[in-house]
Amino acid sequence: MRHLPLAARRAAAWAADYAYAVGRIAHSLLTREPPWARAPRPGAGLPVVLVPGVYESWRFLEPLAERLHDAGHPVHVVRELGLNHADVRTGADVVARHLEALALPAVVLVAHSKGGLIGKQVMLDGVATAGVAGAPRVLGMVAVNTPFAGSSYARYLPVAAVRALSPAGVRRLGRQRAVDAAITSVHASWDPHIPGGSELLGARNIRVPVSGHFRILGDPRVQDTIVAAVADYGT
């Protein structure tokens, strides 16, 4: 494929990306939840809380969750997010309430796309409540293909939940940098949904040699990178 023109390679990558997304959606509709979704497997690793992207349920991240479980991390899902089409502020409140209910001493967020914006807001809120008894402690976040500076394509889609991910829609959140150093941004070499990329100034940025916005989640090399990044928060 590398001998094909760039446009052809990207078209093929785009098609593969959507094929992966459709496959994950079909899997979630046709199969039962894994047992760990109700009772996370115990493990010696840091607890992880999944935050999916826009119009994704937590099951979209299931292959990654399984890999994290295998590495010894108890994985928790935020079922209350549904398909995650509410605004970032609302999503952050939902995640924060879930963290409070979990009552864990510390967690790491693992997020995809819009989920990383929600996770950043949760972390910013955590700075404001630092030292408050019972406030959840988020050690950091591993965000995968998150539009920290927005996506220039989002403004053209007639869906409010997606338009909110435009550069203008995320500008206010982007200006708040108090937690950026605690974020690891893992991003594809080419993301068809985020043409400007997912690098975040002040964060730990890891560019992986994989194309796509969705199928990156199922790539074993990327999963290994994410697992290692999560483990780093415990050192």
Total separate domains: 1
List low-confidence stretches. none
Structural class: alpha/beta
| Strand-residue proportion | 5-15%
Shape: globular
CATH architecture: 3-Layer(aba) Sandwich
Mean pLDDT: 92
The strands making up the biggest β-sheet line up spatially as 2-1-3-4-5-6
Helix share of residues? 25-40%
The fourth-level CATH homologous superfamily is Alpha/Beta hydrolase fold, catalytic domain
Radius of gyration over C-alpha positions, nearest whole angstrom: 17 Å
CATH class: Alpha Beta
Report how far the terminal alpha carbons are from each other. Answer: 40 Å
How would you describe the overall organization of this protein?
This is Alpha/beta hydrolase family protein. InterPro entries: AB_hydrolase_fold (IPR029058). It comes from Occultella aeris. With 235 residues, the protein is an alpha/beta fold. The chain is 38% helix and 15% strand. It is built from seven helices and six strands. Strands 2-1-3-4-5-6 form a six-stranded parallel β-sheet, sandwiched between helices. β3 (107-112), α4 and β4 (138-144) form a beta-alpha-beta unit. α3 (88-102) crosses α4 (114-128). The radius of gyration is 17 Å and the shape is globular. It starts with 5 loop residues before the first helix and ends with a helix. The mean pLDDT is 92.
Q: What's the short story on this structure?
A:
The protein has 235 residues and is α/β, with parallel strands linked by helices. The chain has a six-stranded parallel sheet, sandwiched between helices.
